[in-house]
Amino acid sequence: MNRHMRMPGRVAQDGPSVSAARRHLGRRIGCALIVAVAGVALGLSVHHGLQTTTALLRPRAIRPSVVADRQEQCIYRAIRSDLPKGAAVYINDPVHIQRLAELSTLWAVPQPSRATARWTIALVPGSSRAPGSRAGSRCYGLELEVRRT
Amino acid sequence: MTELLVVIVGLGAPGFLLALAVAGASPVLVFLAPLLGAGLAAVAAVFELGVGGSLLAWYVVVAVIANVAVVALWLVRVRFPTPADPPWEWSVLTLAVMLLALIIPLMALRAELIGGDANSIWLTHALMVSGGHHALVAGLKNPVYSFSNPDYPPLVPAAGALAFALFGRGDLHIAPGTTVLLNACALGVAGTGIAALGGGRRPLTRLAAVAAAGAIGLVGFAVAGQFGVDGYADLLWAAAAVAAVIWGLVLPRGTQALVVAWVCAGVATLTKNEGLTTGLALLVLIALRYRPVTLSWVWRLRRREAGGRFPGVAAWPVIRAWAQRAGFVVVPALPGLVWAGLIRRLGLSDRFFASPSSETLVLRAHAALDGMAGQLAVAPLAAAVLVAGCCLLRRDRERAGLGNPAWLWLSCLASLLTIFATYVFGGFEIYGWLAYSVNRTTIFAQLLLYAELAIWLVIALDTAFTGERTEQRNVTPDAVSVAAGPRS
């Protein structure tokens, strides 16, 4: 390009075609670079996604999530079978307070304080119910403990 | 799985006529219809909260009104001027590639994952919404449920509640599963937007566009990771917002593209609070692209005021133009804004700003910047491709009628700034907050930057294939710019 500017005589002969060819080549190289960078980035991300899906589908990964899901369903049913509908409950379980509150939704009414509650509920390990509490449903290592206040 | 397919068909059925009116017989129809159905469910939830009654009753009312309105418009022969439908073989190919790309990550549904927020927020809200007005209001106002972010918008809970209405509340997994399928639909709309870039071009470019569309579907789930398939709603709002950018700010201007973009932005505003802020920003940008602000109106106004007796008459076109821009923003965002207003009226507020932070703003800003930058590894690549593309392919992009890439980057920046400000001015301990959320709050920016790569890839391939012709056409740029019509 610079050579042509210095030698205007040549531009009149073959300058435009050489310049156009160079520009054309430059554009092609630029396009190839864009395609390569974008293609590699997209390809790597796709590969990562496929790996994630494969990892999630391994039996070792599925088993705990299936158990957690069944445990969830079990606690949900336990609340519905062990408590009367509309029961005002106090969740006496700081570890599982969110879980019990969400699974109580539309059946029991979680109370912010024990004073307004008629029932106290908690999730305890298998057979470690507090004395005086009612035998609840067993859910994959956890048991719903239900007590009248 | 069969139940989930029934739910998504159930959501798609009321949205089908609307989607057909908007999109015609193009592949986006398949993915847009369930999103529209979910949007109608969200509108029904807004009525349930604001007026009373049950979700199902309002859903029937809203769906019937929307469909009757579409039929009425058809009967009086009002048609959205949709571009000519793509050749059927390309539509089928696009649909097949998109479905395949989405089915692969959806196989993870077999793992029956339910994430923490999917349980504590979305499942809880879905149960509340499915219980009717009193259960919903009582649940949202109950302080025990404050962990569930009661101010969050209603689209995901409403779709979950509809699933419960169809199959009962016995199987809780159906609600998060519905969210996962909606994630896929939003990615489908974004992907078909990328595929539309190849419309009217040579077959190799079209093939590349379809492949890039499939890649975007897979990339969406890759960026979201486990959160794309365990019932979280982050991918839903992010993918819907990306679809809004592609249809509203990238593809050539047209009624079809505009309405698809509105639907997607509306879905984003109804899905999460960050979706509401980002969706509003996108709607503003779309309004400015379709109704550009020029300074010529000031000059025109002065001239008219100088020459006429009625300055108000001279100002009328200006007022009308601004009213149109406001309408472009407010109408699609109306359900989301009304929900936010109702929530404030109930005395509920964003938990993130409920208590002041003991950390300094500088520390929080530094931590937020680090955390967000760590998620945006694709940004330097996208920026490099942007620079190269602008240097080499600006004219090709203009000639294709595609939007200026500045729109896309402005959308990305607007979202990132909003999220950055939330982290800086929010009340939670910053490092913990970032650790469990920054990979989700930046899904939109990441996916958008991958979409930007896909867009430049298609343009670059097209230019490479047609290089010789393009080179010759570039000799007369004036003729090209006249032929290309108004700049976008």
Distance separating the two termini of chain A: 91 Å
Classify the helix fraction of chain B into a percent range.
over 70%
Total of DSSP H or I helical runs spanning 4+ residues of chain B: 21
Low-pLDDT regions of chain A = 1-12
Q: Care to count the β-strands of chain A?
A: 5
Q: How would you describe the shape of chain B?
A: globular
Percent strand of chain B equals under 5%
**What is the helix fraction of residues of chain A, given as a range?**
55-70%
For the termini of chain B, the CA-CA separation is 43 Å
Into how many domains do the coordinates of chain B divide?
A: 1
SSE-based structural type of chain B: mainly alpha
Order of helices and strands of chain A: HHHHEHEEEE
Helix/strand-derived class of chain A? alpha/beta
What is the oligomeric state here? heterodimer
Q: What ranges of chain B have pLDDT less than 50 throughout 5 or more consecutive residues?
A: 470-488
* Helix count from the secondary structure assignment of chain A: 5
Shape type of chain A: elongated
Greatest interface: A-B, 48 and 64 residues
| Major β-sheet profile of chain B | none
Summarize the structure.
The complex is a heterodimer of chains A (149) and B (488). Chain A is of the alpha/beta class. In chain A, 57% of the residues lie in helices and 15% in strands.
Q: What can you see in these coordinates?
A:
The complex is a heterodimer of chains A (149) and B (488). With 149 residues, chain A is an alpha/beta fold. Chain A has five helices and five strands. Chain A folds into two domains: 2-54; 64-148, no CATH class. Chain A has a five-stranded mixed sheet with strand order 2-1-3-5-4. In chain A, a hairpin with a 2-residue loop joins strand 4 (138-139) and strand 5. In chain A, helix 4 (59-82) crosses helix 5 (97-104). The termini of chain A are far apart. Chain B is mainly alpha-helical. Chain B is 76% helix and 0% strand. In chain B, helix 4 (88-106) runs parallel beside helix 9 (203-224), helix 7 crosses helix 8 and helix 10 (234-250) packs parallel to helix 12 (273-290). The longest helix of chain B is centred in the C-terminal third of the chain and has 35 residues, at 311-345. Chain B is globular, with a radius of gyration of 23 Å.
